[in-house]
UniProtKB/TrEMBL annotation:
Segments crossing the lipid bilayer: 240-259
EC number: 7.1.1.8
Keywords: Cell membrane, Electron transport, Heme, Iron, Membrane, Metal-binding, Repeat, Respiratory chain, Translocase, Transmembrane, Transmembrane helix, Transport
Subcellular location: Cell membrane
Membrane topology term: Multi-pass membrane protein
Source species, domain of life: Bacteria
Reactions it catalyzes: a quinol + 2 Fe(III)-[cytochrome c](out) = a quinone + 2 Fe(II)-[cytochrome c](out) + 2 H(+)(out)
Protein's organism: Streptantibioticus rubrisoli
Gene3D superfamilies, per database record: Cytochrome c-like domain
ATP-binding is among the record's keywords: no
Quaternary structure (record): The cytochrome bc1 complex is composed of a cytochrome b (QcrB), the Rieske iron-sulfur protein (QcrA) and a diheme cytochrome c (QcrC) subunit.
Protein name: Cytochrome bc1 complex cytochrome c subunit
Limits of the Cytochrome c domain: 46-125, 139-217
Length: 267
């Protein structure tokens, strides 16, 4: 006892006790914490390996060999599989050329290869997963219209026709976009769009917005009751049409009336 009591007063006793406590904590964590891929699904592991090969060929030149990003592309660590499925499923990635915004085009990869690349990117860090069909089944269209006009119409137009933004950017048209990609866009916030995670916009509200967008962009359910819609782009093209066509008709009618009057006076 006297020996331990003497050692306890040693200047390094506190440091030694701290090291022993840290070693014990680390050992318990290593013994009890689950390994990252302890029970990995063999099919999932195969998809990740195949996705890595596809990634190295088509994506690594911009996003880095490990998804860490570069001056040509952002980091993919933590973006999740949903972001990959949206960007590649809509043909935005791989990008044809750098620019203010990458436009939609025909997909380069088939869906099975997109799923493999998405599995690899998801393994780099936790992020939103690809939604299942029950998550993007259309909900209440009336409530979705209110939510869309509050959160989305400022950029995408009240009818989903898109619109211009600053510095050469734009909000794309929503006509023809699948419900899955609409859900993924709200979940991940691609390019200039803000993200709406479930903590900000719960899943039922996303489903309501999908119901409104799919209805508003379908001519069969949202016809142009007022005649020529001019792309549903709002008052600017409508006013321009009124000035050019309407005012042009009035000027032409005035010239015709003046010519007829002058001809009648000559007689």
């Amino acid at each position: 006892m006297e020996y331990l009591s003497a050692r306890r007063r040693h200047p390094l006793a506190a440091l030694v006790a701290l090291l022993i406590a840290l070693a014990a904590t680390g050992g318990l964590y290593a013994a009890l914490a689950p390994t990252q891929r302890a029970q990995a699904n063999p099919a999932q592991s195969l998809a990740i390996d195949q996705g890595k090969r596809l990634y190295d060929v088509g994506c690594a030149s911009c996003h880095g060999p490990s998804g860490q990003g570069s001056h040509n592309g952002p980091s993919l660590v933590g973006v999740g599989a949903a972001a990959v499925d949206f960007q590649m499923g809509t043909g935005r990635m791989p990008a044809q050329q750098p620019g203010a915004q990458v436009p939609k085009k025909r997909p380069v990869y088939p869906q099975p290869q997109i799923d493999q690349i998405a599995a690899y990117v998801a393994s780099l860090g936790p992020g939103p997963a690809i939604p299942n069909p029950s998550q993007y089944t259309p909900g209440d269209m009336a409530n979705g219209g209110q939510l869309f006009r509050t959160n989305c119409a400022q950029c995408h137009n009240f009818a989903g026709s898109g619109g211009a933004l600053s510095e050469g950017k734009f909000a794309p048209e929503l006509r023809g976009v699948s419900p899955k990609h609409i859900y993924e866009a709200m979940l991940t916030g691609p390019q200039n769009m803000p993200s709406f995670p479930d903590t900000t916009m719960p899943e039922p509200q996303k489903r309501d917005i999908i119901a409104y967008v799919t209805s508003a962009t379908d001519p069969a359910t949202f016809p142009s009751y007022g005649g020529l819609s001019l792309g549903w782009l709002g008052p600017v093209p409508e006013g321009l049409f009124g000035w050019i066509f309407g005012l042009g008709v009035l000027i032409a009618a005035s010239i015709w009336i003046a010519a007829r009057t002058a001809k009648a006076r000559k007689k």
